[in-house]
Write a structure and sequence with these properties.
With 72 residues, this protein is of the alpha+beta class. It contains 2 helices and 3 strands. It has one domain. It is globular, with a radius of gyration of 11 Å.
Length: 72
Amino acid sequence: MLEVVTMKEIDAIFGVTDALGIHRESLVIPLGPAAPGRVRRLPNGKLEITVDAARPIGEWLQELPALIAAVR
């Protein structure tokens, strides 16, 4: 179980969001993961991406584009 989001996970998320054309300044990535992970739009318009603590990061990242599309 993931306890802390490190630069390794953040770089992996950026790999997905960069490919989707999402500017890094429009993202908020909390350093504390949660179960389940989620994506939500904050009141200021930024996307908050909370890493899933219970699933392997590679598996969860495959679903990230769909999670982002659901809130855009």
